[in-house]
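Standup notes
- DV: blocked on the single-chain target, sequence here:
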Amino acid sequence: MGILSTITTSLGFGVGTSIGLVIGYYMFIYFQPTDVKDPIIQPLVEVDPKALQQMFPEIPSWVKNPDYDRLDWLNKFIEYMWPYLDKAICKTARTIAKPIIAEQIPKYKIDSVEFEELNLGCLPPTFQGMKVYTTDEKELIMEPSVKWAGNPNITVVVKAFGLRATVQVVDLQVFASPRITLKPLVPSFPCFANIYVSLMEKPHVDFGLKLLGADVMSIPGLYRIVQEIIKDQVAKMYLWPKALEVQIMDPTKAMKLPVGILHVKVVGAEKLKKKDILGASDPYVKLKLTEEKLPSKKTTVKYKNLNPEWNEEFSIVVKDPESQVLELIVYDWEQIGKHEKMGMNVIPLKEITPDEPKVMTLNLLKTLDPNDPENEKSRGQLTVEVLYKPFKEDELPHNAEDSNAIEKAPEGTPASGGLLVITVHEAEDVEGKHHTNPFARLLFKGEERRTKHVKKNRDPRWGESFQFMLEEPPSNERLYVEVQSVSSKLGLLHPKESLGYVDIKLSDVVTNKRINEKYHLIDSRNGRIQIELQWRTP
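- DV (later): unblocked, structure below
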């Protein structure tokens, strides 16, 4: 009886299951719901922008908004530089956070808070686009769209009451639209004095927080509370019009205008020490004012002479006589290799009485460190004559643009003549057949001047100025400038070759007072040279 009951139950289960499957399949195939509608197919061009943005939330800003520009080049740059930016940013963050933490932890009776691990991971942020605003003010406004879904490893160790707790931040995501303002724009590098950073809307911040190995953010309700607190706190501090201000330079110093002219006459030197193994040294002097970005002025080279006489005069624009210092450095010229410094000294402008010429004999020092024992050794003396002439009220420039005005010729200039200043800035696309170590050679009224050599460079930059005192305007004169290259190797074949030349009429500079142009080099395929000419009259 028991066996028969078991067999019957098994057969009933098998038959019932089979019949149920057949009925279910039949109902699924033949009984469809009547309220199901066919999907609406619509071209993307007919979809409104709001619906399209919901469908594709990751569309870059430059696609959604024509005011945004693409920044593929910047993203590629950051991608290559990220390993180095990561270390630099983390180092800066540690430096900034250390004093802040030290100031705050005593309030909460915490022994210490330290970074056990701090790196931003291998995934750099991406710029989805940037909008640039132009205004009538001296400022530049940019609004980049930044997204960063990174994998940083930030581990903080907190010690208090003899206990040690480890907090780790993982899977950080930040989406923000900051407004970056560079102002004021100034005529000194990097050309802006302050950076102002504001947020145009509350940022999106998402991250995981592990405490003692457990994910704290998985606690129900805590994630939303922490996220809103962060958004609100950041918005209170930096939501526009509030801003984070970072000062790059003192704008008052950057906008300083010329207040006078320093006339320097390099008279000569004596008892200089021999630097060359064979023969005497070949000295020349470089001079410039501190806090000035212009290249140094320099005298001619006096070959094989330890007691040289120059008697050469220079005029330098002064912007702050209270803080600026005249630097004088004597070098030994070398045909091959680096020029060796023979000695140096400085003259603070505040020690010079205005409108009174002063002859000074300076002991040459190795360094400006007063405690350097090497300065006790004799290196010779340098004699200079200085005269500081402050501008009168009617001569002072009234705005930054006036600082670019043409200077007047120094005292002693012939009344009917003037000072011709030639500045050789740079050349482009100069290339020799055998070598490219270019320098510029100037010929004017039988006098020859040369710039320094630049090794293996098709686009050399010199930035060197040359002055010619003339009895009359050079209206009928011409200036011959040739770019040449000399071989860096000792040899008789092709020691020097011409890379192109230009012959400039000087009548235009007499009329216009100043010309700054790029000239195409004759006998060069694509070479050009930039030369600035100034005619300064008394």
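- Follow-up: The chain has three domains: 68-253, 256-390, 406-536.
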